Amino acid sequence: MSSAKRKLKKIFSRSTLVLLTILLLFLVDVLLVYGVIIAVELVLEYILPDAATVWIQIGVTVIVWFFVFTTVLNIVSRDMVPEAKITWLLCVVCLSLFGVMIYAIFSVNRPSKSDQKLYRAVEKELRRFHVRELRHAAVSSALGDWAQVSEALYHTDYTAVLHGGTKTEFFGSGEGFFLRLKEDLKRAEKYIFLEYFIFERGKMWDEILAILLQKVKEGVEVRVLYDDIGCMGKLRLGYAASLRKQGINCRVFNCFVPVVSNIHNNRDHRKIAVIDGKIGYTGGINIADEYINETHPFGHWKDSAVRLEGRGVKTLSLMFLQLFSIECKHAEDFSAYIPKEYEDFGDQGYVQAYGDGPRPMYKRDVGENVYLNIINGAKKYVWITTPYLIIDYRLREALIRAAERGVDVRLITPHIPDKKVVFALTRSNYLTLIRGGVKIYEYMPGFVHAKHFLADDEAGVVGTINLDYRSFLHHFECAVFMYGTQALAQMKQDFLETFAVSALQTEEDAKKSVISRLVCNIAKVFAPLF
Question: Catalytic: 451?
């Protein structure tokens, strides 16, 4: 395809049209509001004598400032991260009524009454399994100093139950993950669940799809859930319907509708594969060819995933059924998909899968809180990989405080970016962290998309949760907290190999031009909103 054709395809792509539609609808809303205000002023000026014009203007000003003042009070008292409050306050104070409108439209994500009723029904179904796992406190005591991380997680996500006897395997590349996943899919006997942010036609998806279609012929139930925005430009419109015709129960999460709302910000960023309820995967790897290095848009693609086998898969199954039921608008009976018995793999450590997402589905910032608890609990070292480093004050200070108390704090970020603006924001955090004693490495061969933590050879996390506001505030995410598992030893070896091909950043590397710092500072103000 020629360069000109690629540009035309990008210009007229569905994602571009969606963005233009949202902007157009927003402009229409603004014009309607301001049109009504102007029309009222003209009518009053026509009806009332000329001497009253000044009083009309004063009255309109008082009304506008009343809305501004009450909106400011609402922002200050609202349960919201401080960085987001600052952004909204600047927006309202600087833009007056226009800012109030932006805040009213984009800051609130309140589901409809029917959706809230469905959420409650799904939550009720999930809590049935939560009640059965009251032994959690007794099990978590085996984690020693890390028990508090597990307990805090259990009390913020009622599906996040700690399990022993679960076999784990860590993958430091998409290639290894892909081979193992295909093997497990071929052995499926009852059902297969796949939930991914991105599916894209190519070697990876075509081979998986061929296996799924064969399994459908064998009588295996196959369900697929993908994100609408995530797959824009990668799957054609109506692709889910074509899969359903072939026997795959496919749903599209949060389909774009032409409405100006913050709900479009809530994406399904999870990556979950479940086979028969006994084998499960999660991590950073989507179903597209760059993730297995069949294509190289940003150099070598570095990613990670973890495979669970045994009782610990239960929470991954429940998380999938949770969003699938919501997308189907029906709260089904989950018990049919939860095995009554699991193979016990003995002393394999402990695993605790968990989910995170926007409110009202989740009451706390689960993903960020787990990361904070691991950083605060580390005594020897905490090593982290992340594609994006757009962090708030709490996380930045936790990293620096850990380094100050003698913990070896290391971060691995990409050297070749997938998004230049986001990469500039990532690098803008380097200087403060480096001066605070945090070591930052850039992966020289290409792009790091992996999201995992390792602390003191004892505890770690593998999942989908980036160190940025999108993952912490807006997306539906998932991960697995592990203690004493085989996967942690495999993860450590992968870290050591990755450090060997990464470049340690210095203060000189982190210093930027005045213009670059200005652009990054402006972008940071709006980062919590997007």
Answer: yes
Among this protein's residues, is 456 annotated catalytic?
yes
Q: Which two tokens stand for residue 414?
A: 């990409």
Q: ω into residue 360 within 30 of 0, thus cis?
A: yes
Q: Is residue 152 part of a domain?
A: no
The one catalytic residue among 264, 449, 452, 474:
449
**Catalytic member of 184, 276, 365, 392:** 276
Ranges of residues in the chain whose predicted pLDDT is under 70: 1-38, 40-57, 109-112, 130-138, 258-262, 514, 530
Residues 100 and 72 in one domain: yes
Which residues face 442 on adjacent strands? 413, 503
AA identity, residue 201: R
What pLDDT does 1 receive?
47
Return the pLDDT at 55.
66
Tokens of 111: 């589901």
Which residue among the candidates 136, 163, 167, 451 is catalytic per the annotation? Answer: 451
- Give the domain range for residue 285: 113-146+161-350
pLDDT at 507: 92
Number of other residues whose CB lies within 10 A of the CB of residue 99: 20
What confidence score (pLDDT) does residue 463 get?
Answer: 97
Has residue 203 been placed in a domain?
Answer: yes
The catalytic position among 167, 271, 302, 314 is 271
355 belongs to a structural domain? no
- What per-residue confidence (pLDDT) applies to 530? 64
